Amino acid sequence: MARFLIERLFGMIVTLFLVSIMVFFIMELPPGDYAERYAFRKYSGTGITMTEADVQAIRAELGLDAPAITRYLDWMGGIVLNGDFGPAYAFDTSVNNIIGDKVWLTLGLLFATLIVTYVISIPVGIYAAVRRGGLADYGLTIFSYLGLALPNFLLALVMLYFANLWFGASIGGLFSPQYAEAPWSAAKFWDLVKHLWLPAAVLAWSAMAYQIQTVRATMSDELGKLSVMAARARGVPEARLLLKYPARLAINPVVSTIGFDVNRIFSELPIVAVVLGLTELGDLLLKSYLDLDMNVAGAILLLLTVVIVVMNFVSDLLLAWLDPRIRLGG
Amino acid sequence: MLTVENLTISFRTDEGRITPVQDVGFSVAEGRTLGIVGESGSGKSVSTKALMRLLPGNAEIGREARMRYTSKSGEDIAIEALKPGSRALRRLRGGEIGMIFQEPMASFSPVYTIGNQIMETVRLHRGLNGTAARDLAVEMLTKVGISNPGARVDQYPHELSGGMRQRAMIALALSAGPRLLIADEPTTALDVTIQAQVLDLMRDLQRDLGMGMIFITHDLGVIAHVADDVAVMYLGTIVETGTAREVLKSPAHPYTRGLIKAIPRLDRLDARLEAVPGDIPSPSARPTGCPFHTRCAEAIAGLCERVTPPEVRLAQGRRVRCHLHDETRAVA
């Protein structure tokens, strides 16, 4: 196991390094840079003519004139050594200040969504497989088709309407107005939880539908295995037998796709966030691109990809724990 | 210790009802081995699964079926009346009747160690925990001839060879301390040399532990090796029973004779093997009368295809279902 862990850890570090280079490359891609945008913003309409030399001076002042390799090393150095993502030019402050809270809220939403997805889809999928052909099984199949067919911004609107109807007005956003600017407290956290379930449910919807079908299918396969009948023939009580033998293998495909689910949640998050009025990173990412404020854009891209890489690592570890043949190379 | 009477099993399928086992009866005495022989599809596995109540949900056991088992404590158990999921059924499975399957690799779960699965059984049926359970697991592995059992106990099934796995499977079944062992083609998936070793091992263990054993196989050579009594099954019915010695020496049913002729023999290499002609009919298209008449060279026209042969008692407790032996017919 130790060897497996070290191998995967090394693999993850290499991936992270490559990801950081790719993110930096993407940051360099848009034509022009913030120096030009700054000069345009500040002096357009004032009648002052900006020369190329003036822009160059601004560039030097912002440190944007250095060669790419130096800027990459500076950027990475700050992040790795001090957790400092550099200055956010368009906001006249540091990137950390701009994205700080939003990172935690986005991560909170991500994990809430993952938890909702797995806590519901795994037991339900197992149940559907055990009671295959029953009424509940057919009901779930219909739900799954609905889940896969409905676009989730539509679902968000529908749920927003009903949540508003049943639970009162303050359901959009992540906080009630009185807590939005308040310092963190137990009450504020509880308020967050009350607001989090709706977006989490919307984001989890399609993954849930998909994973229920996955668990149901693999569980059905596993239930037919001889090892399950052999365990039954040894007198293992049914409930324990189901959890110990087939269920452990049935959740394999779910665990191995955690990374995909994270990826999908990140892609669906911005549009759901717009509908539900959430403050998260997607919106900021778009704005920073428009401003060519590449430190902000880079920080967000880097954080999102790091989360995906780390979750893939976690999924590898869980798989190895679930199935010893993976860690023993059998 | 086990008596089965009138066992009929049918399955509801999309193509209608099929009845792979019809009116089967056999018994196993303490310390003796009953061999059940038959081609695939003759219903031998299905009948023994019924004894453990392991049939799938679409299977039905006929109302007249009686399966009487005498437990270790001397209690008579009506297996057909046990409630699914009941404690009594769980105690019967493993603790009273152990089962070994054809595929040793597939009968172990690949994600737990051999020891984990043996110790689970020991905990369930012998009430031992912790080190005591582990010690017993190691002891069982030693008993079935696995080398270095202290290390093997912590290995996963895929780390063992085929023969070792089947030995471990035997250890697993025996660790619950059953009084009756059902072995469903336990050597079919093994190399011939390993087969003989495993057969010897099973025979010795059965003798030492005084267990009853039901040995399912399609191989009469295996029967000659391990069985005291034999029941020959064809298309869901038992066509002939008797002691293994008598049946192999002087088979009474044409089907048994066919099976014996089909055994390859080293001392008759130049003679061609005589196969039983034709294929075993599908259980959904069961022939009328004697099920074997479609392939029987000695079939009596006008009788065998119409009338189901009664069970005829022969000398030495042998029984056969064949019109050729029915003397009342000759009189009539």
Question: How is this structure best described in words?
Answer:
The complex is a heterodimer of chains A (330) and B (332). Chain A is 79% helix and 1% strand. In chain A, a hairpin with a 4-residue loop joins strand 1 and strand 2. Chain A has 16 helices and two strands. Among the domains of chain B are: 71 residues, no CATH class; 76 residues, no CATH class. Chain B contains twelve helices and 13 strands. An eight-stranded mixed beta sheet of chain B has the order 7-8-9-3-10-11-13-12, with helices on both faces. In chain B, strands 1, 2, 4, 5 and 6 form a five-stranded antiparallel beta sheet that branches. The model of chain B has no long low-confidence stretch (mean pLDDT 90). The chains are: A mainly alpha (330), B alpha/beta (332). Chains A and B meet through helix 10 and helix 11 of A and helix 2 and helix 4 of B.
Short précis:
Chain A is 79% helix and 1% strand. Chain A is mostly helical and 330 residues long. The relative contact order of chain A is 0.14.
What is CATH's topology name of the domain at 101-292 in chain A? MetI-like fold
Oligomeric description of these chains: heterodimer
Enumerate how many helices of chain B there are, as a single number. Answer: 12
Give the percentage of residues in beta strands of chain A. under 5%
CATH class of the domain at 101-292 in chain A: Mainly Alpha
User: How many E strands of chain B?
Assistant: 13
Main sheet overview of chain B: 8 strands, mixed
CATH architecture of the domain at 101-292 in chain A: Orthogonal Bundle
What distance lies between the first and last C-alpha atoms of chain A, to the nearest angstrom? 13 Å
Low-confidence stretches of chain B: none
The global form of chain A is globular
What portion of residues of chain B belong to β-strands? 15-25%
Number of strands of chain A: 2
Unreliable residue stretches of chain A: none
Name the biggest interface.
A-B, 23 and 32 residues
Q: What fraction, in percent, of the residue positions of chain B are helical? A: 25-40%
Mean pLDDT of chain B: 90
